Amino acid sequence: MTLYNTSRFVDGLLKTHESSPPSFTVRLYREHWTLNNGSKFLYNNQIASLLDDIRTRHIPVDFLELFDAAKLPFYEGCLIVELLDFRPTKTTEPELEQPERTRVVLTPNDESRWSDICLMKQKAVVPWTDGDALELEARLLMTTVPPLCLEPDVHLTRIVNATQRATTPPAPPSLKRKASVMDQEAEDVEKDRRSKISQFMNPRIRATSVPR
Description:
The chain is of the alpha+beta class. The chain has helices at 6-16, 49-56, 64-70, 110-123, 130-144, 154-167, 181-201, 203-209; strands spanning 24-28, 33-35, 40-41, 79-85, 100-106. The chain has a 5-stranded mixed sheet with strand order 3-2-1-4-5, sandwiched between helices. Helix 4 (110-123) crosses helix 5. The radius of gyration is 24 Å and the shape is globular.
């Protein structure tokens, strides 16, 4: 049942490697973001798809070859990403001197596992056959995927589904946009504006507001 508890696995991995360096670091600023200490990227840049992968907590398949060339550390088959958010809560405030620091875990999925196997096949000294690649994939699945239940049980299925729903963290807001109090204030102002327009268009309300 532990294999179905996503939160427990993630929390345990972060605690075990608390003092270990992250796989990579993302710094978030108001108008741009950076990967490690590299160049600045705009939030609408094509490479910003990496932020979407971090949001979904999955290893980014499109960047696997780049990560492999950079020899980024993997922890139990996962990536630990450190997020440093310098963006202020309100748009009128300056950027933070001390960022909000969080660590997230990116886990593999079927697509990233197969891409990883293809990279290993390319680097192999002895050429692999397709059968070798499939055998390795089978071994990885046997090791990392929860056991397959060959005797279906309704009650057990309900317990597993409930456990997965309760322990799978909800998708966080997009890293490309800072959720702020300012956004809520803007939304309230817009609601008030629409309310005034609807009142103005309502003849009954207009009649009661006209002085006698």
